[in-house]
Amino acid sequence: MAPILRSYAHKLIPSKYLSKWTRWRMYGLHERGMPLRKIFNYLNILFTTIQDIVVAGDQERKERKGTGRYPMTFKAQNDVMVKEALKNHNTTYKDITKKIVPEVSEKIIKNRLSEKNLKKWGAQERVYLDEALAQKRLEWALAYTHWTKEMWRRII
């Protein structure tokens, strides 16, 4: 009988389909001193997958190194910003920046306050009503008093 020919090589298992049991097998083999290449051949899993999982397992319960830059403000400065924002609700980001940390942007102040679930906003300015504008508004309101809800719905 002739051998059965395969048109493709044996497919390797991608990382998203690995079970917990397979992951723990990898950890166990690695802890016993088996090199990653041998684990790759033994379990038939991609080498990079094994490498990523073993390295991630080694870093568990450890503080991972971030790739971002260091924060512009210290924890003590952040606490002072929060106290200032809570003390006077009318202060703006610009005022807090000038008082506490002048070399920092308003965006950083906003981010630090949002980390503590605080928001600052200024009240919207009211339109100044002089006599002429008030008269025009009154005329407009009187002109459309007879309109029904259905008429307004067609416009709005």
From TrEMBL:
- Protein name from the UniProt record: Transposase Tc1-like domain-containing protein
**Species annotation:** Choiromyces venosus 120613-1
Q: Could you tell me which InterPro entries the record lists for this protein?
A: Transposase_Tc1-like
The GO molecular function terms of this record are: DNA binding
**One GO process term, biological-process aspect:** DNA integration
Q: Where is the Transposase Tc1-like domain?
A: 82-145
